[in-house]
Amino acid sequence: MATRLSFDNFFIGLLAGLVYRGRRAVSIRGDEFDRTIARVVEELARRHGDEVELRFRLHPHYVHGYSSTVRDAIAAATQADLISLDNPEYQDMRFKIDRDDAEDILGDLPLSREIYLELADEFLRAYGHAGSRTVTPA
Q1: How many whole angstroms separate alpha carbon 71 and alpha carbon 52?
Q2: Could you give the dihedral angle defined by the CA atoms of residues 102, 103, 105 and 109, in that order, rounded to the nearest 10 degrees?
């Protein structure tokens, strides 16, 4: 039976995976962040569709490209004190957790740590080719 996965668990796992991989911040400027998240979700479904039942859909807005699902998850992660949005424009998402926290989080989520780390690696590959300022290593 497939494991049900909410977007919150997907997003928190991805953030923890990025921290585990040594990232401290990610730019969320423009629509490329949301589009990359959508590509990572597609890759998860392609690689692990028989193991995972996605309990969400992502629909980037046809004009500005943002996904309300992704933007709501960013707000929730901020409220949960996992990230901060750097001033003055709130365009950089800075992680407030360290590698030990990330390891604990990854151990508590419904999928294996390895799957979330695969997702983080896929995000870094895809977002690294976006041509904009993307990720800040530790």
Answers
A1: 23
A2: 130
